[in-house]
Design a protein that fits this description.
Elements: E1 4-14, E2 22-27, E3 48-51, H1 61-65, E4 71-74, E5 77-80, H2 90-93, E6 100-103, E7 105-108, H3 109-117, H4 120-126, E8 129-134, H5 141-153, E9 157-162, H6 168-174, E10 180-184, H7 190-197, H8 202-214, E11 217-223, H9 231-242, E12 249-254, H10 260-266, E13 282-284
Helix pairs in contact: 3-5
């Protein structure tokens, strides 16, 4: 059986997703709903098609080739019937200017591996490898585990960036094929975490403790204004992390608004447009 998964991008020459020069594979779908997410195109597990009016040349090819008749042009204005649109992406295929973009592609393990292998020379020279991110990569466990096993067969250094919100059995199945976890922590107060992400942090913290005892873990802590940047929240997070001696380090990530245009293209509300980013970008302790 050919195992397939949905990805929304492969980024080459990454230097912030683990050691060395890396190829980062972004898997679609996430069980959390963080309002500040910098990859909102990874939240939905389904393919999406977005329209970028600034790129449109009004050629109307999209209307001509849409098999569902979901796209209409009137007075040179684009419209799409969401009830008819199946997100097939055919309109994006025929769009010459890139105004229509298909986000989410069904791929096999072999197809992903073929893309990763193109960068093997960079891995060898820099001590890099492949990183799986998202969305939440563990939300597609069968595809992820099959791809991880194929990567380890080729001795690639493997990193997973995760929210930690997944059944423990998934971590148990994949942990032997992962060299490093970049483990996101947003808050350690369960009610506050649920309010801002849609889920309790209990499962996340339980998984963090277990994974850190079994593998190399660097915690990634995004500092979000009004969410976890107050003294009490920082103190609670620090106390919790100090109680897990196996953690290898902590990356402190400063909030930014660089994803605001993505929300607009996806037709989503971005709640942090008026929130000022702090000075500085990130640090490691």
């Amino acid at each position: 059986m050919i195992i397939k998964g949905i990805i929304f991008g492969i980024q080459r020459h990454s230097i912030h997703d683990g050691p060395g020069i890396r190829t980062t594979v972004f898997l679609k779908g996430c069980p959390l709903s963080c309002a500040w997410c910098h990859n909102p195109e990874g939240l939905s597990s389904n393919p999406q098609v977005v329209f970028r009016s600034d790129r449109c040349i009004v050629c109307k090819q999209c209307e001509t080739y849409c098999p569902q008749g979901a796209i209409r042009w009137a007075d040179d204005r684009f419209s799409r019937d969401s009830g008819k649109c199946t997100k097939c992406g055919i309109c994006a295929t025929y769009c010459p200017s890139g105004a229509l973009e298909s986000i989410g592609k069904l791929v096999s393990v072999r197809e992903v591996l073929a893309e990763i292998e193109k960068d093997n020379l960079f891995f060898e020279e820099s001590g890099g490898g492949v990183t799986f991110s998202g969305g939440e990569p563990l939300s597609q466990p069968d595809f992820l585990i099959a791809t991880l096993n194929a990567c380890k067969d080729r001795r690639f250094h493997v990193v997973i960036e995760t929210s930690g919100y997944a059944p423990k059995r998934v971590f148990e199945e994949l942990i032997g094929s992962v060299d490093l976890f970049l483990f996101d922590i947003k808050h350690v107060a369960s009610a506050r975490h649920k309010h801002y992400t849609g889920a309790s942090c209990r499962l996340i913290l339980t998984n963090l403790s277990w994974v850190a005892s079994m593998s190399k873990v660097i915690v990634r802590l995004p500092i979000i204004p009004g969410v976890n940047d107050d003294n009490k929240s920082i103190g609670q997070i620090g106390t919790l992390l100090a109680s897990i001696p196996d953690i290898c380090g902590i990356d402190i990530i400063a909030f930014h608004r660089m994803a605001s245009d993505k929300y607009k293209r996806l037709g989503l509300e971005y709640q942090y447009n008026n929130v000022a980013p702090p000075l500085g970008n990130a640090s490691r302790i």
